[in-house]
Amino acid sequence: MLSSRTIEIVKSTVPVLGEHGTAITKRFYTIMFENHPELLNIFNHANQTQHRQPTALANVVYAAAANIDKLETLLPVVKQIGHKHRALNVKPEHYPIVGKYLLMAIKDVLGDAATDEIISAWGEAYGVIANVFIQVEDDMYKEAEQQPGGWSDYRPFIVMRKVQETELITSFYLKPHDNGPIAHFVPGQYITVRVQPEGSANTHHRHYSLSLAPGEDLYRITVKREGAGDNHPGGIVSCYLHDAVHVGDTLELTPPAGDFILNQDKDNPVVLISGGVGLTPMVSMLHALAAQEPARETIYIHAAKNRDQHALRSEVDKLSKENAHVNALTCYEEGTVGTDCDHEGYITADWLKTVLSTDQLAEADFYFCGPVPFMKSIHAQLQQLGVTTERIHYEFFGPSGTLA
Fold first, then answer.
1. Of 118, 202, 277, 286, which has the fewest CB atoms closer than 10 Å, so is most exposed?
2. Which residues contact 385 (CB under 8 A, 6 or more apart)?
């Protein structure tokens, strides 16, 4: 338990963290990696370069300070981060390292304003927060390992098939090297791939949503090739998978993780909306809804630039044709309505009102995923249509952000 004085001091730093939080977390990552370069084998280099990770961490630190007297309210956020930590094999011994350099960064950025009393209070608070993460993640590690087909750390999988879906998107079908059973997953979850491209000093990890329904004896990930080079650090892993990984090669995976999942305990309508490669968790959800919930009305809307850039279209069309409760719609920036797509242009609230009934808008759960600008637009359209917050579900590819 934290003392009332510690809580008072930490909460007093909330305005400062709101102003300087990102500067503190950028400094934190810089000095931590300088002193512990081995941690570069865990953290996503692209998210560091693009400043998404420092911003995400700053938001967490701010929320922790603001809620230090009621940390239980942060449990959903802790669990979301815990999934990613478990998928990356973040362990309890890493937390003291993080704490040490976070306090150093606070002192470096705030200077004399970070008094000994403030640093001491934050050190005490960090210990409590770290213990919450460690306990939550310990349960996740045990569940991942002890479930049927589960495992700990990394498990080698063989690429059984490699299918080019579009010019930039390729699917990889993966089976365990030992031919043993694989862990179950919930539609919407991801697996984490660890690779070390030739010439790279460090290993690189990426989370990729599983794009098939559970119950198969293999996993499938559907990967978009991102731009390569110094200006596109996010392309290191995707380019490696596209260019250097072939059928028969081996990839190392951690067990499925993630809290962006389809709620299959409800019977209300479901609307799935995706943009670009954001279709991967949606297609997994669609497979499950088609096979397991024949009475649940399902509408799937996908947006792409044009038909040539629409991956897995034939698969989705087949599910729609074979299941009366499934209706699949397409929106293309470049396309002919009736021939290529159902709507030309962007998804708007006005168009959604033409394809969704009043009852669907009032009752359905909405799941969406795609590029951040796309998700911001969809979120705004749904709010405009009066969809309540508890019926809106979305996933960021990478560190969590905001759609405000």
1. 202
2. 349, 352, 353, 361
Using H for helix, E for strand and C for coil, what is the string for 331-400? EECCCCECCCECEECCCCHHHHHHHCCHHHHHHCEEEEECCHHHHHHHHHHHHHCCCCHHHEEEECCCCC
Q: How many Å apart are CA 118 and CA 115, to the nearest integer?
A: 5
257 exposure class (CB count in 10 Å sphere: 0-12, 13-18, 19+): buried
Q: Which helix (H) or strand (E) holds 19?
A: helix 14-35
The rounded distance, in Å, linking the Cα atoms of 20 and 285 is 40
Higher pLDDT, 104 or 48: 104
Hey, is 262 helix, strand or coil? coil
Would you place residue 59 in the very low, low, confident or very high pLDDT band (cuts 50, 70, 90)? confident
| 367 belongs to the catalytic site | no
Going by the DSSP 8-state scheme, the letter that residue 55 receives in this structure is H
Q: Show binding-site residues for FAD.
A: 190, 396-399
Judge whether 137 counts as a catalytic residue.
yes
User: What share of the chain has pLDDT > 70, as a percent?
Assistant: 94
Write out pLDDT tens, residues 345-399: 999 999 999 999 999 999 999 999 999 999 999 999 999 999 999 999 998 876 5
* Complete domains list, the chain, with CATH: 4-146 (1.10.490.10), 155-257 (2.40.30.10), 270-395 (3.40.50.80)
> DSSP for 67-116?
TTT-GGGGHHHHHHHHHHHHHTT--TTHHHHHHHHHHHHHHHHHGGGS-H
Q: Does residue 305 have a pLDDT over 80?
A: yes
Binding-site residue set: 85, 190, 276-281, 396-399
Q: Cite the annotated binding site for heme b by residue number.
A: 85
